[in-house]
Design goal:
Elements lengths: L10 H6 E8 L5 H15 L7 E3 L8 E9 L5 H5 L3 E9 L23 H9 L3 E5 L8 E2 L2 E2 H6 L9 E14 L2 E8 L5 H11 L4 E11 L2 E2 L6 H9 L1
Parallel strand pairs: 3-10
Antiparallel strand pairs: 1-3, 2-3, 4-9, 4-10, 5-8, 6-7, 8-9, 10-11
Helix pairs in contact: 2-7
Length: 237
């Protein structure tokens, strides 16, 4: 049975086993969050050595729900990770980037005049269901023992392996060219950056992911999350 988050009141509870729902800030890696919390508990609160990890990477340029497990709850990470994910965000049409987001510089000048809201809705619907997806080269995927983004940043050409993913819902929540806001519900391992890149291609244009926020990592919701600072302050007092 997966315990509810925040069922702890002391450092001892955290060391023994807890689940924390963090609203990850923009620009932080998932490992930055783990490291910050671990440092706080070990150095500020003098906690003994304990296990800590996250249940599903969130890109540095994304914000939102990051599930942190400590102690005995780290054994549940694989079980937690299989839950469906929900994201909201913005796709920018008319340009592309090598990373499919703003980690790299937008380039190109693709036409968008022919795109209307009906076309955007049809393109979104075309992603629904099971499909083989190619992860971005700027990703944390392991290729021959190294992170794909390391090779990409070094200018080394690599071939990404496709993976089977499922998109359960793809809603357009705002259509105001060159931007399109969305809500996507999908399976574990789905790259929203790839969907954002492919979205423009299916519309006869180019596109990249301008903003992304994870709102759910089932069974947990962003509304139940807390900031890193509030977690540190709560356990520290």
């Amino acid at each position: 049975m997966i315990p509810k988050p925040f069922e702890y009141k002391s450092v001892e509870d955290v060391v023994n086993g807890s689940i924390m729902l963090i609203d990850k800030p923009y620009g932080w890696t998932s490992f930055d969050v783990v490291g910050k919390l671990k440092w706080h508990f070990r150095h500020n609160l003098k906690a003994p050595k304990f296990k800590i990890g996250h249940a599903g990477t969130l890109d540095p340029l994304a914000t939102g729900l990051l599930v942190i497990c400590t102690g005995r709850c780290t054994k549940m990470i694989d079980q937690i990770m299989i839950g469906e994910k929900e994201y909201t965000g913005t796709i920018f049409l008319g340009q592309t980037t090598p990373s499919f987001d703003l980690e790299t510089t937008p380039e190109g000048n693709f036409p968008i005049e022919h795109i209307d809201d009906a076309a955007a809705l049809n393109a979104a619907a075309s992603f629904l269901g099971e499909q083989m997806q190619t992860p971005p080269i700027y990703s944390a995927k392991q290729i021959d023992g190294k992170r794909a983004y390391e090779a990409a940043r070094a200018g080394i050409e690599i071939k990404m392996r496709q993976a089977l993913v499922t998109v359960h819902a793809f809603e357009i929540t705002r259509f105001e060219l060159p931007e399109v806001d969305f809500r996507i519900r999908c399976s574990k391992g789905t790259y929203i950056r790839t969907i954002a890149n492919d979205f423009g291609a299916r519309l006869g244009s180019g596109s990249y992911l301008k903003a992304l926020r994870r709102t759910e990592s089932a069974p947990y919701r962003i509304e139940d999350s807390r900031t890193i600072e509030s977690i540190a302050g709560e356990i520290g007092n």
